[in-house]
Design a protein that fits this description.
Blueprint lengths: L2 E4 L19 E5 L1 E2 L6 E4 L2 E5 L4 E6 L5 E6 L4 E4 L6 E5 L7 E4 L7 E2 L10 E3 L11 E5 L1 E6 L15 E4 L4 E4 L5 H7 L3 E9 L4 E9 L3 E4 L23 E5 L5 E5 L2 E4 L13 E3 L4 E7 L2 E6 L4 E4 L7 E4 L13 E2 L3 E5 L4 E5 L4 E3 L7 H6 L5 E6 L2 E6 L4 E6 L4 E6 L7 E5 L4 E5 L3 E4 L6 E2 L1 E5 L2 E8 L2 E7 L7 E7 L2 E8 L9 E2 L5 E11 L2 E8 L2 H4 L4
Antiparallel strand pairs: 1-47, 2-40, 3-4, 4-39, 5-38, 6-7, 8-9, 9-10, 10-11, 12-16, 13-15, 14-17, 16-19, 17-18, 20-21, 21-22, 22-23, 24-25, 25-26, 26-27, 28-29, 29-30, 30-31, 32-33, 33-34, 34-35, 36-37, 37-38, 40-46, 41-46, 42-45, 42-47, 43-44, 43-46
Length: about 550
């Protein structure tokens, strides 16, 4: 008497020998949906639209329009943290980090406002005071640029300090940005600030906002306004890459080996003192909460701190370089990326671990070409797509197993998860597809562990319980005995589900493996030496 019964279907653990795989786990699991424990097929991708380029973004605009953006370079886009109708885009290949809005797209402007490169010139028709003249005040000036969004950049160097006579006029001459800088800023205004000398310090206070390059200053100190608030509002460095956003309204990117931070909810201000160097070249960034994980060519680093002016970087003590920028995935509680030994995770404990260590040997992992992995997080699972192919895998942390997939069609070159659509989108060279969005099903293949009996056994019957999706039967049962397929039976009638079906006399040996292919959903498979053993349990 012998019986095999499988009533839960799990993924693969390639590191484990076929005879040692857990009873519900698989040697092969391709295109299987195992979320509910039963064996189900995944749906085919659904065609969405034609789209060129090598990277893309789905912009869910505030006017209800969903706009597809594409670039011919590897770019990162993120919604503006304080103005929902704007979008920020960064790429190491861009001359400057970009911003656009619903009214001007596809035109882009520069994110951030540069400081003027020249100090203001000052003169006075009455002449400046000499040592013998009555002095009304000590004056020096700075000025800033203000872009079309009303965003103000850092100030110029100060003008020469002069002593101003009583009732005299000071003519302040400003220098507009050069044309190459002006164009991405949109129209520019100037804000002029004048020094006010106090008992202990000197502050530059607001004088006037103007569009003219000449201003005649006759104001008294008491008429001046606030102190210049944008002294540290440097623009992001040119070539900023890996743009991400955190829950505290900051944008973060990297440049060479520096992690760069914006002011919270002021994404055009990237103070130089908010740039945190690490000891290795950065590949990309991830985050959980307000903690940033810098994935580098050597070890990962974590950058922590609620106050952006008091951030600190610490090395995670694992030699796990990041092999693929697009493999970096932020889940809310952890960051995953493809390392040389497996899928690596840094979590809220600020430690790291190879989460696939119990699934792959290093050689097995390397054979997958982890440097090609593009990852997204969806439904509490890590979806890995191999760049330039139609294949990948799904890692389920709750089950600690893997399901492979092969979706056919053109090679995938980029992916993204859209929270507004709650969908993974796949990009080929010319088209966009929605993962699992079609009405058709992708045929699965699932092979059990190798069940071993000390003495040879004869299996006589099998039984499959399940149901076909859309009432379309598509199921093939194969039994391998001592590594040889001895029967391959297509189950084509719904009436063949839930009843014993005969096996040939050749189903006799020490080891048995069950393989199922098709789209019919399976709840349980039983193989036994007698009809009674596959009957419903009492």
């Amino acid at each position: 008497m012998a019986r095999i019964a499988i009533n839960q279907f799990d993924g693969v653990m390639p590191i484990v020998a076929p005879r040692l795989v857990p009873e519900t786990a698989a040697q092969i699991a391709i295109n299987c949906n195992l979320e509910r424990g039963r064996l189900e097929a995944i749906r085919d991708p659904k065609y969405v639209k034609a789209l060129d380029g090598i990277s893309f973004f789905r912009w869910a605009r505030t006017d209800g329009v969903h706009l597809w953006i594409n670039w011919s370079v590897d770019a990162h886009a993120i919604l503006h943290p304080s103005v929902s109708s704007r979008m920020c885009i960064a790429s190491s290949t861009f001359d400057y980090t970009r911003v656009t809005d619903q009214d001007i797209y596809p035109t882009y402007r520069r994110l951030g406002v540069p400081a003027p490169t020249k100090a203001p010139d000052v003169s006075s028709p009455e002449g400046f005071a000499s040592d013998t003249d009555e002095v009304a005040r000590i004056s020096a000036y700075i000025y800033t640029y203000v872009n079309v969004y009303g965003e103000e950049g850092p100030p110029s160097d100060p003008s020469i300090v002069h002593k101003v006579k009583s009732n005299a006029t000071v003519v302040v001459t400003l220098h507009p940005p050069v044309a190459t800088t002006l164009t991405p800023l949109g129209s520019v205004k100037f804000r002029i600030y004048r020094v006010v000398v106090g008992t202990n310090n000197a502050d530059y206070q607001f004088l006037v906002e103007t569009t003219d390059t000449l201003y005649n200053d006759t104001k008294q100190d008491a008429e001046l306004g606030e102190t210049c608030p944008t002294v540290s509002y440097d623009p992001p460095p040119d070539g900023l890459d890996g743009l991400i956003g955190t829950s505290n309204g900051q944008l973060i990117g990297f440049h060479d080996n520096e992690v760069c931070f914006s002011e919270p909810y002021i994404p055009y201000a990237w103070p130089i003192e908010y740039r945190i160097p690490v000891e290795s070249q950065i590949i990309g960034l991830g985050y959980f909460g307000t903690t940033i994980v810098a994935c580098t060519k050597t070890r990962p680093y974590i950058v922590t701190g609620y106050d952006p002016s008091a951030l600190a970087a610490a090395q995670v003590p694992f030699d796990q370089p990041c092999l693929s920028k697009k493999s970096i995935v932020s889940t809310g509680t952890a960051v995953y990326y493809a390392g040389p030994d497996g899928l690596f995770m840094v979590d809220e404990s600020y430690t790291g671990q190879i989460v696939t260590k119990a699934l792959f040997t290093r050689d097995q992992w390397q054979a997958l070409q982890p440097e090609t992995i593009m990852g997204v997080w969806h439904n509490e699972r890590y979806y890995a797509f191999f760049h330039g192919s139609n294949t990948g895998f799904i890692y389920d942390p709750s089950r600690s197993d893997i399901v492979m997939f092969d979706i056919g069609g053109q090679p995938i070159i980029d992916i993204l998860y859209s929270s507004s659509g709650d969908c993974i989108y796949l990009k080929t060279a010319t088209k966009v597809f929605a993962w699992g969005g079609a009405d058709t099903w992708r045929s699965y293949r699932w092979r059990s562990r190798k069940f071993y009996f000390n003495h040879q056994r004869a299996m006589a019957v099998f039984r499959i319980d399940g149901d076909p999706p859309d009432d379309a039967m598509n199921l093939c049962f194969t039994l391998l005995v001592d590594d040889v397929p001895v029967v391959s039976k297509r189950v084509i009638q719904r009436s063949e589900l839930g009843v014993p079906l005969r096996l040939p006399a050749s189903a006799y040996g020490h080891t048995f493996e069950i393989e199922l292919e098709g789209t019919t959903s399976v709840d349980e498979i039983r193989v036994a030496s007698s009809v009674d053993e596959v009957a419903d349990d009492e």
